[in-house]
Amino acid sequence: MKKYFFLFLGVSLFFLSCNSDDDGIQNGPTPNPDPSANVIAQDFMWQAMNLWYFWQGDVADLADDRFATDAEYTAFLESFTDPESFFLETLLFEEDRFSFENENYEELVSSLSGISQSNGVEFGLGLIGDTNNVFGFVQYIWPDSDASTKNISRGEFFTRVDGVQLTTGNYRELLFGDNSTYTLGMATVSNGAISDSAKEVTLTKIENQVEDPILVAKTLDVNGTKVAYLMYNRFLGSFNEDLNDAFATFKAEGATELVLDVRYNPGGSVNTSRLLASMIYGTNTSDVYIRQRWNDKIQAQLSDDFLTDYFANSTGSSPINSLNLSRVFVIATESSASASELVMNGLAPYIDVIHIGETTSGKNEFSITLVDDPGNSFVYNSDREGNINPQNSWGLQPLVGRNENAAGFSDYTSGLVPDIAISEDLTNLGTLGEVSEPLLARALEEIAPGITKMDFTVEMPADAFTTSRIHTPVRDHMYLEKPLQLNK
Description:
3 domains; 2-enoyl-CoA Hydratase, Chain A, domain 1; Pdz3 Domain; 20% helix; disordered N terminus; alpha+beta; 7-stranded antiparallel sheet; 23 strands
């Protein structure tokens, strides 16, 4: 008999209905530390990862038979005094690039809904020549942010914060530290050289900022062909209706082609990726979108219905507005990760996905949010805040599964390779959504050859070793948000 539980897997939309009388996820006997030992955080991390972690069977210290006695377990935990290093250096599989932790689970949960502290500037960081000096380049500005009221825009450069040159050693503190206000020292680029300028811009981070992930949604007329263009910057379930409304407008305006721009999109909600794919391809709910693979102990307890996601005909609140396309042009770069890649992979068995840009990040696993609530199998639930151990505020966002498409393909840990390779050019970033913006123009060339009459030579590739979107509590993870169905 199947039992249905609502499992919170990333955002506070669902809740797990199991309690001490329910038979939820089973993990068998687990070791218990000495109550007098100062290992509360470490114990939570081990217990949660032993149950849920995708590579649990590959990490020797997470093995079910790792400890013969509770005393041995206690001594093991006591040997790690720093919970962060314990998680990152002891519990993670060597190939895991994406699992992470946060000392404050509330900050982590807020970020999953798109809420963060931000001044509204998204940027990439690159190295200046062969030095350790760093420069930044502005990718875009959030509407209705502090930066949107300041003299700063896409395509500008900066090298200093509060008069201090950015370096590989200080950029984290200067740009992503506790300073709520800082002043950027701007710069110019000429003949491949970056030079400081006198211009300065003072920016203030605002608490509880919410970014609308739909930066640009417009329909272009390309030699008589209506081409929808969507610049989409994160998969957020709280904006599903806005996304569906954008496609309603595309349909009303007669769009027969789509350019989906996820060049800066690090991922987010798996369900939102499913809805977006349905808006592109169609609403046949018998067509498989993706299938999930968890670790062996979890996989055996989940129903086939839960493990398989189909294309959708509704957002849950309204019918899907689908363009029913046979092909889609996707602008994706090395900054495109997780749910962005999932859309491309999930659509590939059904329609032509023409990938323009760079090889993507290669993040094909999903995660869930875990907190110190053993009564709920450590899964965060907004209705169970009172059950979380008040002595332990740590939250984990570990990778717990991998998605494969209808053809069974999931092996893109090295990234999805573009059909048409082109990088952004720091000397000509262009205006997002305008036909003269190089990457969009390259997509339009495939629809109407010769329409742009542009030279696509890249003089100074926008090579970033990191971006502002990675330095947030949510980072670049992909998370589930769906009812859990157990084979019980």
